[in-house]
Amino acid sequence: MPVLVASDLDRTLIYSSAALALTMPDARAPRLLCVEVHEAKPLSYMTETAAGLLADLGDTAVFVPTTTRTRKQYQRINLPGPPPKYAICANGGQLLVDGVTDAGWHAGVQARLADECAPLAEVQEHLLRSADPVWVRKHRVAEDLFAYLVVERELLPADWVKELAVWAENRGWTVSLQGRKIYAVPKPLTKSAAVREVARRTGAELTLAAGDSLLDADLLLAADRGWRPGHGELADSGWGAPRIGALPERGVLAGERILREFLRAARGSTAGSTAGSTEVGQHP
């Protein structure tokens, strides 16, 4: 049975120049491959070694990019290896199959959000009213599913994100700070739900996952095995759980290490060792 590998992208497998964390002497820095260009400028990178590992992984397992990015933002990325048959965008709100949106999946997500959460418009209005233009650079809505702010981190008040999280909690939303972005996301909008659907469609008996942010916690907990890098929201808070490897590497070298772990686990799996785990999150 196939192994499913569901991985976050930004600051997990791919890195902006600001997130590379190249702390070694320049002469020892790894060679980098640009995997995303935006407005004619290079934007995201992985090491050349990681690119080779990802190509191998695509031949070994069902690799599913699993991102909070919108479909348009995801489609800017040019990953090495075979094109993924499945991709999860908008934190689970959009499922792409051979690059095409699965309309039925999206409709089901929208119905659940309407039933269980305060409306997006209420959250937008609160963000516009409470966020100070002194430190907010952009207000954005993604796929009519969730909202985020682009901020100047050094000007952001220390308690503002915590206060927003308390406000959002009472309305069925969650808040995540990732780099210069503050996300407000409905609680039922999860990567893990979409990954379960891909596991069902592919018949995967083993699911591996990786991610660095609060929005990846449900994905990691739902997988049979998972890894988080030494940077990001989860590492900064000391978050951990059984079957989750807390890696010491930070920056772009963490992405390389995560891919090595994926390959080792995928190649080492057997039908016997995964018997009884026929759905994401079900363990013997």
Describe this structure in words.
GO terms for molecular function: hydrolase activity. Keywords: Hydrolase. It comes from Streptomyces musisoli. There is one protein chain. The chain contains nine helices and 14 strands. It has a five-stranded parallel beta sheet, with helices on both faces. Strands 8-9-11-10 form a four-stranded antiparallel beta sheet. A three-stranded antiparallel beta sheet has the order 5-6-7. It is 32% helix and 25% strand. Helix 1 (48-60) packs parallel to helix 9 (252-268). It has 284 residues and is of the alpha/beta class.
Main β-sheet: number of strands, strand sense, barrel status?
A: 5 strands, parallel
- Indicate the overall shape: globular
**Distance N to C terminus:** 17 Å
Order of helices and strands: EEEHEHEEEHHEEHEEHEHEHEH
- Strand coverage percent: 15-25%
Calculate the mean pLDDT score and round it: 93
**Rg (C-alpha, Å):** 18 Å
Work out the helicity level: 25-40%
- Please tally the β strands and state the result: 14
| Number of contiguous helices | 9
Low-confidence stretches: 270-284
- Lateral arrangement of strands in the main beta sheet: 4-1-12-13-14
Structural class: alpha/beta
Task: Please name the defining characteristics of this protein.
284 residues, alpha/beta, five-stranded parallel β-sheet, four-stranded antiparallel β-sheet, 9 helices, disordered C terminus, HAD_sf, TPP-like, HAD-like_sf
